[in-house]
Amino acid sequence: xxxxxxxxxxxxxxxxxxxxxxxxxxxxxxxxxxxxxxxxxxxxxxxxxxxxxxxxxxxxxxxxxxxxxxxxxxxxxxxxxxxxxxxxxxxxxxxxxxxxxxxxxxxxxxxxxxxxxxxxxxxxxxxxxxxxxxxxxxxxxxxxxxxxxxxxxxxxxxxxxxxxxxxxxxxxxxxxxxxxxxxxxxxxxxxxxxxxxxxxxxxxxxxxxxxxxxxxxxxxxxxxxxxxxxxxxxxxxxxxxxxxxxxxxxxxxxxxxxxxxxxxxxxxxxxxxxxxxxxxxxxxxxxxxxxxxxxxxxxxxxxxxxxxxxxxxxx
Length: 315
Prior knowledge:
Layout: E1 9-12, H1 17-33, E2 37-42, E3 46-47, E4 57-58, H2 62-79, E5 85-90, H3 94-103, E6 107-112, H4 125-133, E7 138-142, E8 184-189, H5 195-208, E9 212-218, E10 230-233, H6 238-250, E11 256-262, H7 265-272, E12 278-284, H8 296-304, E13 309-314
Helix pairs in contact: 3-4, 5-6, 7-8
């Protein structure tokens, strides 16, 4: 009896440093999971209004797309020997194509070009749409120095000012071009902790051999907090203990610490991401094909977190 093929890790690529950093992060994640890496380049056909009365669609440059994917594949297989890398060119609306690619993936990884860690960064329309609609986890990663033009790490040429047509541009979050050495951080809403988010967070921690830091939200309290607005706990709060217990039993080797967020949970997650290997947040699943609502906590994490951010859809 044949076994079901492993879901790959999928990385969206446009050739800029941010997307190459994301692809490299995705390569390491694929190795951690023991699955292939699939590199995709999504484009959108451009309409030239004066080409004819019928508004002829100008086809994309397949040669450039193929070269981009081939260079990235060579770069990653050289850097990560033993990694299986496949490539695909995706036509049509980039956001729709990436959401479809994510459906058959372990997770989808996108790059971000930001404004710098102190000023935050912009969550572009393609990334926002993908995060809002994808049925699988989406990880957003940015390059180490996103605030200035850089040489293309695959070609050595200067990065263009404008995004390439159909590129994965303006994606959300993530520091540098890889994981840090810190813990995995997960945001938990005690009013409705979701198993999919906790499962992803615990699994990510055990694969990295790190601890898991749980930042959980609650209403205003009289209990004093430290200067960062956090009160250290040892997971004794009944709702949190109940939510974590089955996962701690399943992953007994993962050290777990907990912090209660007083006030806006998004800002506390951003603070916690400063020394994190990965920040994990949830997003309520949407069954509509339109709209880009992702919630204020997830939005804050995507805009300002210092680490890569994994957005896990849940019911």
